[in-house]
Amino acid sequence: MTRSFLALLLTALAAAPFALNAGGLALLTEMLVLLAIAQSWNLLAGYGGLLSLGHHAFVATGAYLLFAVTRDLPVSPYIMVPLSGAGAALLALALTPVLFRLREVYFAIGMWVAAEIIKIVVGRLDYFGSSSGLPLYAARRIDTSWLPASAHWFALALAAGLCLGLWLLQQSPYGLHVHAMRDDETAARSLGVKTRRIKGTIFVLSAAGCGMAGAISFLGTLYVSPIAAFDINWTVNAIFICVIGGLGTIRGPVLGVLLFVLLREGLAAYPGWSQIALGLIAVAVMLLAPRGLSGLLDRLLPNIRRAV
Question: pTM, whole model, 2 decimals?
Answer without folding.
Answer: 0.90
